[in-house]
Amino acid sequence: MSEPLRIFNGQGRPQLGADQMAALTVLAAAVRDLVEATLLTDVDPATLLATAEAVNALVPGLDAVRRAAPPVADLDGNGVLRQLASPVSGRLNPIAPPIEIVALPDGTVRSEFTLSPVYEGPPGCVHGGMSAMILDHVAGAAAAFNGTPGMTATLEMRYRRPTPHSVPLVAEARTDRVEGRKTFVEARITDLDGRTTVEATGMFVLPSR
To answer: What integer pLDDT is reported at residue 70 of this predicted model?
Structure first.
């Protein structure tokens, strides 16, 4: 692998064993449920304070052995970035939905997902910044699947209509063209009726040596 791609292969980052990966995935899912429950709960103040105390008591146990950096990010069998700590797709990151990305034979990458109220912006709708983060991530995956990965240089967003949360959504991206170290990708999110809610055009640049 060439020198510029070191930033994508997780070199120098901690590796995880299968058992630890499985356990961390379970823990992240539990914390994800806790975040949503915290946002939507309507229990009494005494219960809230008791729960906060119980949660705080758990932190020292996890902090007893601490990593210097998140676990390794690498490429899956399709050449799509598999980022364990990603705030979009990272199974080990409790703030990630997370979304699963599938690479299709025609070069498109696709994800079907539902965003919870945790990601709400306007009432009933996904925060525009969350939509941008998802499209940035999916577009980057499309560039990687094309064999021309890069860092985001530009991301032009076009918000066509509100993106609802708590319903099935689809994000798709496909490489449009490659110019030297620059890869141009088109991406979009569609709602349950197949209407485009957000579009993006991204340019990804492979860092030089």
So the answer is: 84
